[in-house]
Amino acid sequence: MSAQGAYILGCRGTWLRDREKAFFADANPWGFILFARNMETPAQVRALCTDLRQTVGRNAPILIDQEGGRVQRMERPYWRKYLPPLDQITRSAPEDMVRGMYLRARLIAAELHSVGIDVNCAPVADIITDRTHRFLRNRCYGADAQTVLDAARAVAQGSLDGGVLPVMKHVPGHGRAFVDSHHEPPHVNIDLNTLAATDFVPFAGLSDLPLAMTGHMIFDQIDPGVPTTASAKMVRIIRDMIRFDGLLMTDDISMEALSGTVADRSLAAIRAGVDISLHCNGNLDQMESVAETVGLMTPAAQARADGALAQRRAPDAIDVPALEEELNSLVEGAFSG
Fold first, then answer.
1. Can 216 be counted among the known catalytic residues?
2. Is the pTM above the cut of 0.85?
């Protein structure tokens, strides 16, 4: 198989324009990502996924952020609306939490797989603090490493059992973000040893997962002024200390925590050792500049990408109504709205 572009790209609407088709065919992105702007009906989403894959002539991965709660791109009337993950955990008895998170992820995976989406940007393995910014807080699973790890492992397994690859995020930890990284860079002034004993722990426990997403955090005592996404020092920590050897992608490269053009940001990430740049907003001019600047994946990145996709499999058979009933028995009001 020929090398693929070191980027994941989005499209503008619910169907592909001719210029988008031509660009994707030429740029050959590793995969695609969908958002609420791309959702209309199940049949339409299935058709869009088919069209995206046809542009590159292969079964390219198609990603989405379907965490449940505040961050889910597919909603009613065709798809379930879930409680935020933290609410679900806090409403569950400890012994029910892991099973509940598994069931939730397995049901989400069934919805995704049915329309052709095979990668979900979850679990969120960040540990919250008293000051975690509200953009992230109720998307997380807890305030201690073991709770987060247990819940995140359940989410990952529920996804895999449903034929959907999980993406753990935001490595190596975003819970100390006291500002919204969509708008400005979060700074963390904590030493490496403390981080290794706290924030890094869930990610280390999930290091066998196939895919991970960087956060745009700046760890001032490790690489001052440089976001993790563009930091060779932080990427080396992810590889050597956390021991993650799967495919590493950026968080959305168009977020304003990063400086410079999206092409500059993407190139900085690749030079730092990140495998793939994730560009989400569907702006074709920006995507063209990213593709031209970044080019193809390195041989090492392509090998990790191929290894990740090798873990895709057909979903296990399930009784959906039975799983819904079980989840509702564990978490009162598990489905919101």
1. no
2. yes
